[in-house]
Amino acid sequence: MAITSHDPIPTSQLDGAVKDYSRDKVYVLTALFLAALTVIEIMTYAFPDFPVWSGNLVIAVLMILMAIKFFTVVYIFMHLRFDKPILTWIFWAGVTLAAGVYLVALCTFRIFWPGHHG
Amino acid sequence: MANAVQTHESVAAADAHAPHAHIDHDTNTGISNTKLGMWLFLASECLLFGGLITTYLLYKHPLEGPTPKEIFDIPFTSTSSFVLLMSSLTMVLAVSAIERGDHQRLRIWLGATALLGATFISGQIYEFTVFVREGLGFTTSRFSSAFYTLTGFHGVHVTVGIIMLMSLVLLSLRGKLPEHRAETVEIIGLYWHFVDVVWIFIFAVVYLIP
């Protein structure tokens, strides 16, 4: 049977590099890692007195966990790690601009000052 | 026909031997304009959601009405967050499926992603309904306005994503999504993952940080 441009390529006709496709395994392991981090995040709520994140430490712990999850999704699921560097520059330009502008805005309203309640 | 077979073979060969299945395009950057456009759009979306999150942080202490601590149901939102996180896995598996020409799995993973997204949206609608019943309307306080605007905007993004995913399923069923158009799935996948990334931020900042 002739193959047309609209037909799928049968997996059997592809060579091993595609057939094995070990990236799927990486994706599943990444998802499990993200799920584990989410469980830790939820534990900060369920067990607020746990020494690692007691008191104001919880903010730092949650921010670190959030940053790890953010980087993992962006670099592995969004393929930024495997793609052209220009895409990394474009995305980080947006993130950095947003973070800079809004941190200044929050500082203008003295949100990080002690006793701030909006 | 010979050209079509050639196209297939070259795409398959490129996919098989390229370490990460990203084929160079005939543009100055080597990236297709659509993909470049999507990344630029996502960069601009950082500013949109950054603005909404900043507004929420400024207004999170309500002067009247229920407080976040009184109203949030963390176990329920955690489950929703987990569902959205897992939809990123099914999305990336869909991209992987089309790159190796497995159209049946592509449709299964796209359908699963849309279903998980719909579950998340259903949870959000339920959450909003409960909040309104408990006296937290859109105009109840500055906190409620900022909260509903932020999470509502995110919900709209998820809904748009579901529509795009279902469109891909329909295109695939009609045979209009051959593997040399895998990048279409990848680009919609980028949007979906970004929506997930934004929720990772919202979940921590809005719901978990006291």
Main β-sheet description of chain A:
none
The amount of beta strand of chain A, in percent, is under 5%
Q: Summarize the helix and strand pattern of chain A as letters.
A: HHHH
Distance between the termini of chain B: 63 Å
Q: Considering the protein shown, what is the CATH homologous superfamily of chain B?
A: Cytochrome c oxidase, subunit III, four-helix bundle
Oligomer: heterodimer
Shape label of chain B: elongated
> What's the CATH C level of chain B?
Mainly Alpha
Q: What structural class is derived from the secondary structure elements of chain B?
A: mainly alpha
Low-confidence stretches of chain A: 14-18
Please tally the helical runs of chain B, counting DSSP H or I stretches of 4 or more residues: 7
How many beta-strand elements of chain A?
Answer: 0
Structure characterization notes:
The complex is a heterodimer of chains A (118) and B (210). Chain A is mainly alpha-helical. Chain A folds into 2 domains: 82 residues; 35 residues. Chain A contains 4 helices and no strands. In chain A, helix 2 packs antiparallel against helix 3. Chain B has one domain: Cytochrome c oxidase, subunit III, four-helix bundle (Four Helix Bundle (Hemerythrin (Met), subunit A)). Helices cover 78% and strands 0% of the residues of chain B. Chains A and B meet through helix 1, helix 2, helix 3 and helix 4 of A and helix 1, helix 2, helix 4 and helix 7 of B.
